[in-house]
Give the backbone structure.
Amino acid sequence: MPEPPKTPMRYLSGVQSSGRLHLGNYFGAIQNHIRLQDEGDCFYFIANYHALTTVQAAKELEKFTFMVAADYLALGLDPNKALLFRQSDVPEVNELAWILSTVTGMGLMERAHSYKDKVAKGIAPSLGLFYYPALMAADILIYQSDKVPVGQDQIQHIEMCRDMAGYFNNTFKKEVFKLPEGVLSEAPKVIGLTGGKMSKSDEDSVIPIFGEPAEIKKKVMSIVTDSKGVHEPKDPDQNVIYLLYKLVAKPEEAAQMEKGFRQGGMGYGDAKKLLIGKLEEVFGGERREKRKKMEEKPGMVEDTLVASARKARRTAASTMEAVYAATGIPCSRVKKEILELKTQNSGGSSG
Ligand code: AMP
C-alpha cells in the first residue's frame, strides 16, 4: 500500500516594519525563515498593524514596510517557495484577535513581559500595545500554523497563543485551532552594540543588515570596550565584538578570536576590524547589489506582496468559516461577497 501523502509542516512568522532590519532579526529569525522555505509550507508576513503601535507616520510606515520586503528578497526569500505578505492585506486577523480576546482573561495579558519591557523603554502604553499578544495569536492561528520560528523574546507570546487557542476550543467545544510551537534559532537572543538585546526600538543597539559600509564601520568602531591592552587576557563571553563575530565568521575563525582574547594578543581595535570585514563579506557584495536592485523595482516587490496576500487570505478565510460556525457570528452574504469579489478582481491565483 502506498503511504498517504504527508501534509507539509506549516511555518508562520512575522517581522514588524518598525525600523531597519538588523543582525538580531537575521540571526534570530530570518535566516531560519529562508532555510525553512525548502522544508515546509511557509507564511511570512510584514507586521505593519503591529508596527503602528510605534510608527505613527504614514510615509514612514510605508517606507519601512517596503524595506522589510526588499530585505527579505535580497537575503534569499524565494516567493515561489514561501509567501511574503503584508499583515494588513488579511484584515480578518483583527476580527479573529477580537474573538480571541473575548475568551482570554486579563490575568494572562497582564503577565506579558514584552509589554512591560516596551513601556519601560519609553514606548507609549497604548491599548494596541497591550493587545499585541491577542493580535499575534490571531496571526498564528488564522493560518493553522504548526511551527513559529522566532527569537527568544517571542516565546512567551507563543505560549499565550497556545493558551488562547485552548480557551477558544474549550469554550466553543470545537477543535478549530491546533496548538502551534515556537522554534528557536541557534542565536535566539543577539546582543546589541549597547550590551542589551539588539532591538529596533534602540537605534544605538543595532547593526542594520543593509547599512552602508561607512555606517557599519562607524557603528562597530564605536562599540565601548574596557581599557585592557592588546596583550592582556580578556573574557570573550562578555564581549560584544566577539559575540557578533561568532555569528558571521567560520567556526575556526571565531575560535581563533576567542583564543586571542582569552590568552591575550587580540586587541579590541583588531577584533573590530575583523568584524567589519566579515559583515561586509556576508551581507555586502551580491546581497547588497540585489538589495539595491529592489529599490529600482518597487513594482515587482509590490506584486510579490499582493500575490502572496491573495493566497494567505484564502487560507485565513477558510479558518474564519470554522470560527464563524463555532461562535455563531455569521459568515453573512456581505462577507462572502467581499471575499469572492477580491478573488475575482485579483485574477484568481491559486491558493
Ligand atoms: P521584531 O523586530 O520585534 O519584529 O522581531 C522580528 C523577529 O526577530 C522576531 O522573531 C524576534 O524574536 C526576532 N528578534 C528581534 N530581535 C532579536 C534579537 N536581538 N535576537 C534574536 N532575535 C531577535
Summary: Residues 80 and 194 are 38 Å apart (CA to CA).
